[in-house]
Amino acid sequence: MNALSARLFGTCTVSVFDAGDLALCAEDGVVVDTEHGPDFAEVVSPHLPPALAGRRPAPRKVLRPMSGDDRRALQDKLVQERYAHDYCAQRCESLKIPLKLIRVAYALDGKRASFFYTAAGRVDFRQLIKDMAHELRVRVEMKQVGVRDEAKMLCGCGTCGYGLCCSTFLPGFIPVSIKMAKGQGLVLNPSKILGVCGRLKCCLAYEHHESRGKPKPAIATYADDAV
């Protein structure tokens, strides 16, 4: 497997993809397969050690290098997403809908737009969807995410000074408990053990052992091989 890491345009999350027979360089534009369909991405690292790539779920494929038409489509997509984000935020304020808009993602064919948001509870956005579908002329999908997903999408720096683990190299969220902090003798001060998302830091799991005789969890080695 020819594994590489790439970042979707408009996001800061780095994911692993299988490039197949393609010879690519850092900063090359590519079209990749994602769980939401094909999307544009930029190569971060064109070669990953097989051991690192093997620790993650089976990677999705790099479909092709970006062409001139793809680059023009990317620019149109980014403009559409910015307009849709501003319009949605404006309508939420006018309709007094209590949600926080995180990100808007258009499909490559321009027929579907996903709006990611956080909210304290259930939200009635039926009128909002009607207004946006009429204005944007696309199929609107509202997707509620948690505060950890919000931090992953928006990125940022942790108290360590590095980029957030969830936005850079973690393939998924790790179950974390206060027991992990206690077992490491850490001061149970919220400013020390909570991340920017307001939840327990993912890195609490890196040095956690159920006993000295047991090996560290495989996730603990990710930090050493971060891409």
Question: Could you describe the 3D structure shown?
Answer:
It is a single chain. The protein has a 5-stranded mixed β-barrel with strand order 1-2-5-3-4. A 3-stranded mixed sheet has the order 6-7-8, with helices on both faces. The protein folds into 3 domains: 3-65, no CATH class; 71-145, GMP Synthetase, Chain A, domain 3 (2-Layer Sandwich), CATH 3.30.300; 155-225, no CATH class. Mean pLDDT is 84; it is low at 211-227. It is an alpha+beta fold. It is built from 7 helices and 8 strands, in the order ββββαβαββαβαααα. Helix content is 29%, strand content 23%. It has helices at 50-54, 68-95, 126-136, 147-154, 165-168, 178-183, 190-193, and strands spanning 3-8, 14-18, 29-34, 37-45, 60-65, 100-106, 112-118, 139-144. Helix 2 (68-95) packs antiparallel against helix 3.
Provide a brief overview of the structure.
By secondary structure, the chain is an alpha+beta fold. It has 7 helices and 8 strands. The strands form 2 sheets. It has a 5-stranded mixed β-barrel. A 3-stranded mixed β-sheet has the order 6-7-8, with helices on both faces.
Please describe the biggest sheet, giving its number of strands, its sense, and whether it closes into a barrel.
5 strands, mixed, barrel
H/E element string? EEEEHEHEEHEHHHH
CATH topology type of the largest domain: GMP Synthetase, Chain A, domain 3
- CATH architect. name of the largest domain: 2-Layer Sandwich
Distance N to C terminus: 17 Å
Average pLDDT for all residues: 84
| Strands, count | 8
Structural class: alpha+beta
What's the CATH H-level homologous superfamily of the largest domain? K homology (KH) domain
Tally of distinct domains = 3
Measured as a percent range, the helix fraction is 25-40%
Q: Segments where pLDDT lies below 50 for 5+ residues?
A: 211-227
Total count of helical runs of at least 4 residues? 7
What is the rounded Rg?
Answer: 20 Å
What is the beta-strand fraction? 15-25%
Strand arrangement, largest sheet?
1-2-5-3-4
Gross morphology is flat
CATH class of the largest domain: Alpha Beta
